[in-house]
Amino acid sequence: MISQKDFDKEIDLIIANAIREDVGDGDHSSLACIPYDATGKARLLVKDEGILAGVAFAQKVFEFVDPGLEVDIRITDGSPVKYGDEAFYVSGNSQSILKAERLVLNAMQRMSAIATKTSKYVKLLEGTGTKILDTRKTTPGIRALEKWAVKIGGGENHRFALYDMIMLKDNHIDFCGGITKAIQVTREYLKDNRLDLKIIVEARSLEEIKEILQNEGVYRILIDNFNYEDTRKAVALIGDKCLTESSGGITLETVRAYAECGVDYISSGALTHSVHNMDLSLKAI
Description:
alpha/beta; six-stranded parallel beta sheet; four-stranded antiparallel beta sheet
């Protein structure tokens, strides 16, 4: 999986690019009417309910824009919030606060929505031993933020990108010429290139699971688009030979039933691609 050091680099890149995109050659609205040395204070106001996420990210944004800004945190990431709560106060140069405002709000609104949705899945899975995973179905350019939000909401991250885990899905298998061949050449590739990457293989039927199990070196089997009955059969068939993961349109309404089939993980793209942003505002005081 991606290291913390590399993850932090992704966050830094997101901040730098977002400020470049938003500010350009200057925040002319602020430059036009606010003295360069004016100071002020603002509060992050919650106008919704859910799980708050992005406070630590906001601190990084303020630091990037102006190290002189001071942030007084009142509610930390992962905390439940309700309408009227004040997450933090930021004080310092007024132009700097306004320069950072939109990036902070855009990120926190989406991150909080993702954390809130993830938390709902986590609660539904309590007592089953099954863990919820995100996917690569993220917004281009801000994947690190969205996966960070999943962690804040109590979920776990799947692979970060194409480079930190092997995932042999249906197209890889079909293009390669079959399951066994795909696994064998993948293991040879990893050996030849001295790469230590886990291998996940997608199965579309119980027969494909049987074939996967005939090969060594598979870390997890992706039980994709199976019904409940076949998922239970698949879990029994796999036993303790490797880990199991269910995927394919699993929703809040169905996630508990799939977990009760005995899978180790359930992955859901909906954690990141189908959320409604939490309503947050940054208000001068």
